[in-house]
Amino acid sequence: MTMDEIISFVDDLDGVLALRPGLGDGSPEISWGDTFFYYSPDGITPTTTQPFATIVTKNYPGDEASRLDRPGAFRVNISAGKGAFIRWTGHAPREPATEVDPSAADTVIAHPVYGSLGWLAVVNPGPRTEAAIRELLGTAYHLARSRYERRAGVNQSRSSAP
Q1: Rounded to an integer, what distance in angstroms lies between the CA atom of residue 3 and that of residue 141?
Q2: Which of 68, 61, 46, 50 is CA-nearest to residue 117?
Q3: DSSP 112
Q4: Residue limits of the DUF6194 domain (predicted)?
Q5: Looking at the DSSP assignment, which residues form a beta bridge with residue 105?
Q6: pLDDT digits (tens, 9 = 90+) for 56-77
Q7: Where are the domains of the chain?
Q8: Could you tell me the CA-to-CA distances from 35 to 19, 117, 141, 143 in Å, in that order?
Q9: Tens digit of each residue's pLDDT (9 = 90 or more) over 86-103
Q10: Class (C level, CATH) for 3-159
């Protein structure tokens, strides 16, 4: 699965804001070339929520284990919830895990830095993980949408109170 295929799949979901930082938009240079997916039906970048998925194209400080400095390497990161995390890793996010090579391609793993928060990751997704990526992105999208709608409902009920 290419980055463009992943971006296209997520872009087709209703209410998704895909941020692609680059030169001249005020974003930090380290984020240029990466993609961040939010559920934001109004198209405004959320300031109080994290993206539900990201694609990173390089190592970040403290996050070098996936070896994204290799030519053509990228990693899709997905916050698909505790249930999906347990199903794919065999353990809860904060529990100790069997060590897995975080640079292994086409393998669903706990995110090398944010796994304890329930994030999953795949370096260079391919045929083994394509269906899983689509399923996990769909799950992450629905969770993000539900959070958004729940918060919007809370805000609406507060604003309508006397």
Answers
A1: 17
A2: 50
A3: T
A4: 1-152
A5: 123
A6: 999 999 999 999 999 999 999 9
A7: 3-159
A8: 6, 20, 15, 19
A9: 999 999 999 987 888 999
A10: alpha beta
